[in-house]
Design goal:
four-stranded mixed β-sheet; 470 residues; alpha+beta; disordered N terminus; 11 helices; disordered C terminus; elongated
Amino acid sequence: MFHVESATWTEHDSESRIGRGNKSINHHRNSFPLLFLGSRNSRLSSSLKTPRNSKRRNHQAGTRKAPRLKIFVHLGCVAQFLMGELGSDPGNSCLSLQEIELLLSSDGKGSVPWLDQKRPTFLFFSANWCRPCANFTKVLVEIYKTLKSTEREFQVIFVSLDRDEASFAEYSRSMPWLVLPFDPRISRRLCEHYKVAHIPSLILWSSDSNAVEEDVVGFVEDYGVDAFPFTRKRREQLEAMDEALRIGAGSLQALLGSPERDYLISGEGKKIPISDLAGKTVGLYFGGQWSPPCRSFAHQLLDVYDELGVSEPGKFEVVFVSSDSNEDEFDQNTSSMPWPSIPYRDKALKKLSRIFLVNRIPAVVLLGPDGKTLSTNGRNLITSHGAKAFPFTETKITDLERLLEKEREGLPEQVSDPKHQHELKLDRAMAYVCDGCTRPGRFWVFSCNNCNFDLHPQCLQGSPSAYPIP
């Protein structure tokens, strides 16, 4: 589902942005840039400075050994630790597995062996003050527990970028995984080595100190449990599956449903089988009640829907893909819609926006009767051509454009008319209201750039009737 809290809209916008860092589709992921972390030749800052009371030792050049750290970590609770000296040699900027000697069991009684290196281990860079971090932590905890229950386990180590130890303590209590002690020196070294530029970041801890894996937060947000084991190979597999669905290689059930759900819901809450869409042209309408551009476009879509219901009965259907901010808003929105919707909070909502790369609303994706994708720019087709664009094929759109160009032939580039004091220039508009006859118009129009004055071509003085009002 979309992260609605990050949506923005201004008075002059014709669409609303929705917060998807998404991705693997990294076009929708929320994250916080570590601009506050910048010292020397790294992005790190005074917020991660070495504590003033820390002891320092002088080492002769060429004789210093990599320090061994004794870090004692409780599972899922606040850490207590004893730590050896940390050097500042850039060559030693990465903590190796061998630098950590032991962990404590979850009850704090006795030590346990170091992490199972057969399972993937990830460093989770995050902070209590960061809202995107809080949102992603909830997602990661759910995935962690789900995978653990199915014995598909991975390991996480929390690397704190909190501003103080009290915030660290509060934040780490919610985590069921390992926690590194709160110490800016450790955080600085890990951030430098793994090139952490924003949080949250989730990066594989590689046994090769020279290898730096990519951040997988967007990948995890996009695919959830299905992303396991969070490798490049798995990402490629899932993206290939998305591509197949994007072009229409799968069924409508695979695209719109799930193993648990084979239906859509009407505004009255009735279940409508997805199979009822078979053989129809389908428009996937991505929108939300909170978005003014969506509220405006919904009226245009409804006009097209009603017109096609008369001229092409049973051949066109719309499916609403919601990005409403809460269920009450969703219920209010869908109650006035004559078409079915995907249930609120259903996983298919996020899946569809990911597959079709939707990061702005309103948006319409058009699917043909065979289930193949006709256009991901259905909103523009509907706004420009209305019901005349049906069945929304390339051939139909090309024919419409040719007709428009033919209508343009013979029309002057600019004219004068006694109805207005300024020159009027030929323009093309998706929709307008003629200031001469007060009737709506579409496509060709004579407009005044200074006064927002619009005139149908046929409303020009002495204009032939060969140019009917569209």
